Amino acid sequence: MKRVTSFICMMVLAVMAFAGTAQAGERAGAFSISPFVGGYVFDDDDQSWLKEHRLMGGLRLGYDWTDHFSTELVGSYMKGQYASVDRHFGIYSYRLDLLWNFMPRTAFVPYVAVGGGGTTIRYDGPNSHDGTFNAGGGLKFFMGDNLALRLDARHILDFQNKDLDDNIANNWEYSLGLSFVMGGKKAAMAPAKATAAPGGPAEQKAATEPEPQPAPAAATEPTPGHYKYCITLQGEFDIDKAIIRDDLRNQITQVGNFMKKYPTTTAVIEGHTDNVGSYNHNMDLSQRRAEAVVNYLVEQYGIDRSRLSAKGYGFTRPIADNATEEGKQKNRRIEAIIDCAFDVQQLPPPQRLCMSLVLDFDTGKADVKPQYRDEIAKVADYMKRYTTTTAVIEGHTDSTGTPEQNMKLSQQRAQNVVDYLVKNFGIERSRLSAKGYGATRPIAYNKTAEGRAQNRRINAIIDCVIQK
């Protein structure tokens, strides 16, 4: 047993040394293949005729039914030896184990296991077949989404094929291996540790999900009193490249000419992709494509670089279903978000216009206060002036409360603004829809009261018919 304890301690220390680079990994629906090597210790009383310590190797085939619960089919082989003479023979073990994983979405996944099976000893004469029962546990250290270093230890009861009352051997097995994980439902992000926010009890609820990073400060949301043109550029890029093709250059002309005409405007160029490829690869690709458009505007249209910024969103903000090729094409896009500081009432409608409505809601409530009639009237006046326009009213919250509560609250606030436009300004309901985003699209950090106030907002995204 001292050897078993020493082995476990050394492996735990080795795993801890790599902790800084680990990622999370257990997930429902995943298959795993886990080769391993280790040692087997025979009972020195009930199986004293066998040499006590033997090397072994084997393979585990697993399936995660849930994040916590999995099963494994285990097979192993070792070369046994008589304790008194130099004679060897093969020992084959096979069993089915049930595992319960603790903290399945963390880098370190400890677990307990129980199982049963059998052992076959192949002598020169008739083979011996014993039944077995095992219990123990282990630890997986995930070095990525699909690879884990694994340490296991089991106490094995060997029911020898004689009188079971007197021939139950207490054996031990310890092993080190790798787990190759395939499939399953990956988490987009590992849950963040909850932090308390200042303020009243409602604001002190711990967030259950990691806080999304806010978008860049320049022009991603209209400055108070400003508006935002959203021009979607649908020109294609070559696969896995960020070189601007001719069909996209023609569309970028809209952005360049508009910003030259109105020199007080600023813009954020957003890059978006479909969901083919990994998260990190698509984030990098969308960023490089957005930066390519920024560089083109600077070099070809003389737009000052200080008026532009680039932001890649990868596949995190789809506008269509990635299950179809048509949907993927719509998601592979560049959007120019232009912040405007003049009276858009006097301008013909662009492709899309975003009006940021500064509305104050009571904590946990969605009622629209009468004093915000003039603010909402901006949307109504524009839609009355351009009768072919339609609008999506977006609701956003800070991170106070649970994600489910925030989604429900933001949806209700957006719906109430829609109802207000219909009831008080006569906008046809068929031209309006409501969408709640909860706390998933912050424009400021939720760590301060000022940031949370900025994130509690309503946006009106107006789609316009353009005469080409």
UniProtKB/TrEMBL annotation:
Any one of the GO CC terms: pore complex
Gene Ontology BP terms: monoatomic ion transport
Residue span of region Disordered: 193-223
Subcellular location per the Swiss-Prot or TrEMBL entry: Cell outer membrane
This protein's record includes keyword Ribosomal protein: no
Keyword Aminoacyl-tRNA synthetase: no
Any one GO molecular function term: porin activity
Matches recorded under InterPro entries: Bact_OuterMem_StrucFunc, Beta-barrel_OMP, OMP/PagP_B-barrel, OMP_bac, OmpA-like, OmpA-like_sf
Domain OmpA-like: 224-342, 348-466
First-listed, main subcellular location of the protein, grouped into a coarse class: membrane
Chain segments annotated as transmembrane: none
CDD domains assigned: OmpA_C-like (cd07185)
One Pfam family from the record: OmpA
Keywords: Cell outer membrane, Ion transport, Membrane, Porin, Signal, Transmembrane, Transmembrane beta strand, Transport
Signal sequence extent: 1-24
Topology of this chain in the membrane: Multi-pass membrane protein
Protein name: OmpA-like domain-containing protein
Species of the source: Geomonas terrae
Lineage, highest ranks first: Bacteria, Pseudomonadati, Thermodesulfobacteriota, Desulfuromonadia, Geobacterales
